[in-house]
Amino acid sequence: MVKNKNFINSLLNAINGIIIAFKDERNIQYDVIIACIVIVLGFVFHLNRAEFIIIIFAISFVLVSEYFNSALEKTCDYACNENFSPVIKMAKDISAAAVLISALNSVVIGSLIFLPKIIKFIGLIHGH
Q1: Domain CATH code at residue 23
Q2: By C-alpha distance, which of 94, 100, 63 is closest to 76?
Q3: Cα–Cα distance, 42 to 44 (Å, whole number)
Q4: How far apart are the C-alpha atoms of 36 and 34, rounded to whole Å?
Q5: pTM for this structure?
Q6: Which range among 34-43, 105-114, 116-125 shows the weakest confidence by mean pLDDT?
Q7: In the chain, how many domains are there?
């Protein structure tokens, strides 16, 4: 493997990594779909700038966790030649736990931001 010669090569390799993982990893595809829905809902419920920034950080936290998890899983699978190893399983489980924590964090943040707006909207529909 040759080291990147310049910033453009580094950037192109990173973009390639985004595309490869998106095509190959079902969970990343789901995360992107959910992120798009949340962003659309942000416009529907008129999130302010600070709320959007928080939502974008939560989405990014989940995606970055998923990408690191995918990279670690690929590396572990390669290192153990796809053979079972309790140590590799532990590493992969811990990495998956990081994704779970980021996803739960995202759900809590989304709930704190969206639930009051949804409740207010439901109240308006029912004339309260």
Answers
A1: 1.10.287.3610
A2: 94
A3: 5
A4: 5
A5: 0.88
A6: 116-125
A7: 1
